[in-house]
Amino acid sequence: MKPIKGILFDLDGVFYVGKQLLPGGNETLAWLREQGIRYQFLTNNTTSSRNALVAKLQGLGLDIHENELLSANYAGVLKLQKMGLQRCRLILAEAAQADYPPSTNDDPQAIVVGDIGNAWDYDLLNELMTQLLDGAELIALHKGRYFQTEAGLQLDSGAFVAALEHATSKKAHVVGKPTAAFFEMGSTLLNIATDELLMVGDDLVNDIKGAQAVGCHAVLVQTGKYRKNLVDKSAIVPDGIIPSVAALPKYLTTLTPT
Q1: Where do the DSSP E strands lie in the chain?
Q2: Backbone torsions φ then ψ of 164, nearest 5 degrees
Q3: Is the N-terminal amide bond of 178 cis, ω within 30° of 0?
Q4: How many CA atoms lie within 13 A of 14 on its CB side?
Q5: pLDDT of amino acid 258
Q6: How far apart are CA 247 and CA 155, in angstroms?
Q7: Hey, where are the domains in the chain?
Q8: Which CATH superfamily is domain 84-174 in?
Q9: DSSP state for residue 19 in the 8-state scheme
Q10: Is the Cβ–Cβ distance between 91 and 100 less than 8 Å?
Q11: Fewest C-beta atoms under 10 Å: which of 25, 49, 81, 255?
Q12: Is the pLDDT of residue 110 over 70?
């Protein structure tokens, strides 16, 4: 493998869970800065604007700045601009809508789906299905299956995206992890080739498989949504497994470039 020049980090489950910062994250970031190793945070968070998410994380005590963060929510804004779509129905938390055009329920060109918690119900899914069948595009900010909360695993918005795809036979435009384009955005922001990047995450599909598909070295942390039984039965094999993000400096020092 090539020498590692940069790190891509997942956030939720790696640096924090719920409202609790996990130990060792800030120390790892400080060590990377001392070593001259650049890093970027890649998150599938869809509940906040980028500015609000950074403010929340800083409030938890994480040493993070807005220019270090690429979120699936902001990637959705860029996707709509690229597709030239302005009349959109936003299935997003109110706090996540700040960077988007105003939401409309009337004949939308696109339906943007993120996390809305317990607001999902049959009537909403049926309305969205009808609008998709009438021609609206489906923009999924990600297709995560579940995420870790303080109360345990919780169903994520990807399950509802999959239901809409199945009902309409229409494929969603997915912008967050594990799409190659999202990891490549991170690579571009760091100006480092993907095969010189290491991804650190707690999700086998979104973080590990997605990163490996574009040539990144991918390391799984045993925090957040990590479950040993899921790893043991999965065909996805991380390049490394570490107890937590606090162990990343030690792991990096063991790598031997070829």
Answers
A1: 6-9, 16-17, 20-21, 38-43, 69-71, 88-91, 110-113, 137-140, 146-149, 152-155, 173-174, 197-201, 217-221, 240-242
A2: -65, -40
A3: yes
A4: 26
A5: 64
A6: 29
A7: 6-44+177-254, 84-174
A8: HAD superfamily/HAD-like (3.40.50.1000)
A9: T
A10: no
A11: 81
A12: yes
The tokens of 254 are what?
A: 């063991």
Tell me the residue type at 233. Answer: K
Q: How far apart are CA 77 and CA 75, in angstroms?
A: 5
Q: Which of 48-52, 67-71, 118-122, 229-233 has the lowest mean pLDDT?
A: 48-52
Neighbours of 194 (CB within 10 A): 22
User: What angle do the packed helices 158-168 and 122-133 form, to 10 degrees?
Assistant: 50
Helix intervals (H) in 70-202: 72-83, 122-133, 158-168, 180-190
pTM above 0.70, yes or no: yes
Q: What would the two tokens of residue 187 be?
A: 């690579």
**Which residue pairs from 210-213 have beta carbons closer than 8 angstroms and sit at least 24 positions apart in sequence?**
210/177, 210/178, 210/179, 210/180, 210/182, 210/183, 211/8, 211/178, 211/183, 212/236, 212/239, 213/178, 213/180, 213/183
